[in-house]
């Protein structure tokens, strides 16, 4: 699910300007295709983030406007006026007269010549993990102060005279992180070119792989190890789910750093099972993560990871390389990935610990029932209607509605190119449309649900429906392998889909499912289960120490005759 980036800065303030039309110019010598995102905020100075960091999907968001730009000539202005679609306010004319701080970013698109024959304009990942406001090469301007008045006919002119610098060679570059890593004897980084992805996208495409080696790896050259895959969003460095911290934290008050250092101590002292722990980076033109399955729009990431990358990792670092000796875990986006990986590759994995997964049953697509609802934004009665909520606090207070979130993403990019949450689900689950972009399952401006696209989703990516349909063959392969947890106050209503999955599995026969479920009463996103006497934070901080022994115990219990269950248990 979502991640929020915050960057503090000092605002550069200019003289007041009265305007209801804004013209943005990019000083460049080449023609540009992409998407302009203009952000307006009342919060300025005093350590507040730049406006480009204040646009978000909840009601606390700054104001944004988005404009598609195709083949823009050098120095030709891009216009934002009353017709430009905005969020949360729908139009520039809807703003209250007042003083604001304004900043714009131009998200540069590149051509992708797909193996399908389609040519698409998309935002390539530039090593930043698909964040338009941090993407290297994107032009932007320093924040400026102005007075907006919808009744005025004045025009404000902005010049995007700055460019976000590259990641390569900086402290956010994974290869730089790996080179400086003081625990390099345990932690390795690989940049892996995928033949399958490169063919699909029509250009070289890479996966990043962080591999944590067990203690004693060099001293036991004949040992071969099980593999555990941790699923998560893109991050520059390693984390499973904590960062790799090899020195004691400066303050004991930083519970996350303390827990990370404790994990380092447990890992290197042999107090944890000796396995290869793998974290895969898979940012792509639609999101910071691929969802690790084969997709008509995102590409064959399931095949690339499981048929190309993992065999290469196991060969290089002496993995056992058999399904009984692999397991996976993750939460949120990683939760969906871990469960989907186990279901789609039942013979290649021997267990998943899945927490707070993204929608695994499309009867509960967050708070939308794609099968029974006709509109994703509102539910209507004979004389009234109510908006469909999307985000909430654990106490039930609503902080975001589905229609508003779709409009937010539309401001960031049309044709599914926002690189945000609803759009990546659509990119992963939908067929490609006639124009080559993902087919809309929900109209981003009206909320109408396309039932033919829903049918496509149902057959391929509704994990509950797939388990129900294929239980005769899948059931025997999944015994002892499914473990799920979620908070019943999940921020994005993800608990509803988990309950539906449990109801389906409770009704299974031959075999009867032995999947385990744990629900956290009132717990938000992302609850990962654990002893009830501990807090959600404590259980999160020791997740690896809890699940790795359980994974290995199951592996040993189910290992086939003659399997190597000894060389790695020194």
Polypeptide structure, described:
It is a single chain. This protein folds into 3 domains: 18-163; 174-361 and 462-558, Rossmann fold; 364-460, no CATH class. Helix content is 24%, strand content 23%. The protein is built from 13 helices and 27 strands. It has helices spanning 174-180, 195-201, 255-268, 301-316, 333-344, 402-412, 421-429, 451-461, 463-469, 471-477, 495-506, 536-541, 543-558, and strands spanning 18-19, 21-25, 32-41, 63-72, 78-80, 86-87, 98-108, 110-113, 119-122, 139-140, 144-148, 155-159, 162-163, 187-193, 206-212, 227-231, 276-281, 294-295, 299-300, 326-331, 352-355, 378-380, 385-387, 389-392, 398-401, 482-487, 516-520. Helix 3 (255-268) links the parallel strand 16 and strand 17. Helix 9 packs across helix 10 and helix 9 (463-469) packs parallel to helix 11.
């Amino acid at each position: 699910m979502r991640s929020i980036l915050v960057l503090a800065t000092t605002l550069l303030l200019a003289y007041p300007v009265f305007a209801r039309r804004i013209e943005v110019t990019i000083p460049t010598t080449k023609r540009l295709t992409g998407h302009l995102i203009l952000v307006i905020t009342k919060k300025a100075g005093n350590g507040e983030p730049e406006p480009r960091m204040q646009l978000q999907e909840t009601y606390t968001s700054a104001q944004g406007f988005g404009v598609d730009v195709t083949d823009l000539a050098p120095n030709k202005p891009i216009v934002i006026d009353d017709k430009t679609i905005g969020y949360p306010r729908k139009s520039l004319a809807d703003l209250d007269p007042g003083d604001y701080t304004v900043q714009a970013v131009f998200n540069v698109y590149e051509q992708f010549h797909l193996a399908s024959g389609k040519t698409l304009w998309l935002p390539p990942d530039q090593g930043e993990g698909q964040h338009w406001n941090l993407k290297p090469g994107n032009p932007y301007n320093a924040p400026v102060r102005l007075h907006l008045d919808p009744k005025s006919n004045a025009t404000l002119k902005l010049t995007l005279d700055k460019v976000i610098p590259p990641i390569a060679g900086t402290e956010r570059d994974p290869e730089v992180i790996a080179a400086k890593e003081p625990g390099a004897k345990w932690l390795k980084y690989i940049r892996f070119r995928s033949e399958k992805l490169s063919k699909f996208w029509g250009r070289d495409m890479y996966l990043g792989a962080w591999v944590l080696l067990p203690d004693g790896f060099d001293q036991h050259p004949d040992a071969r190890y099980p593999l555990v895959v941790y699923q998560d969003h893109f991050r520059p460095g390693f984390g499973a789910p904590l960062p790799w911290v090899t020195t004691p934290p400066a303050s004991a008050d930083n519970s996350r750093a303390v827990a990370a250092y404790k994990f380092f101590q447990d890992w290197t002292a042999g107090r944890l099972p000796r396995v290869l722990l793998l974290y895969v980076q898979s940012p792509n033109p639609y999101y910071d993560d691929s969802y690790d399955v084969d997709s008509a729009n995102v590409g064959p990431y399931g095949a690339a990871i499981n048929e190309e990358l993992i065999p290469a990792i196991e060969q290089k670092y002496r993995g056992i390389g058999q399904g009984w000796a692999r397991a996976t875990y993750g939460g949120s986006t990683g939760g969906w990935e871990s469960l989907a990986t186990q279901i789609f590759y039942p013979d290649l994995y021997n267990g998943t610990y899945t927490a707070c997964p993204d929608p695994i049953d499309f009867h509960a697509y967050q708070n939308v029932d794609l099968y029974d609802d006709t509109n994703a934004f509102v539910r209507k009665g004979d004389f009234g209607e109510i908006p469909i909520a999307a985000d909430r606090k654990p106490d039930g207070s609503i902080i975001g509605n589905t229609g508003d979130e779709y409009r937010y993403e539309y401001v960031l990019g049309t044709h599914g190119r926002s690189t945000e949450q609803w759009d990546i689900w659509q990119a992963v689950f939908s067929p490609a449309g006639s124009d080559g972009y993902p087919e809309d399952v929900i109209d981003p401006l009206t909320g109408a649900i396309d039932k033919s696209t829903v049918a496509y989703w149902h057959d391929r990516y509704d994990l509950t429906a797939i388990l129900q349909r294929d239980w005769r063959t899948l059931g025997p392969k999944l015994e002892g392998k499914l473990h799920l947890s979620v908070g019943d106050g999940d921020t994005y209503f993800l608990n509803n889909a988990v309950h539906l999955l449990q109801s389906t599995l409770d009704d299974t026969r031959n075999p009867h499912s032995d999947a385990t479920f744990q629900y956290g009463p009132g717990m938000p996103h992302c609850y990962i289960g654990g002893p009830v006497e501990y807090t959600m934070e404590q259980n999160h901080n020791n997740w690896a120490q809890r699940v790795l022994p359980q994974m290995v115990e199951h592996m040993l219990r189910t290992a086939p005759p003659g399997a190597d269950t000894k060389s790695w248990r020194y």
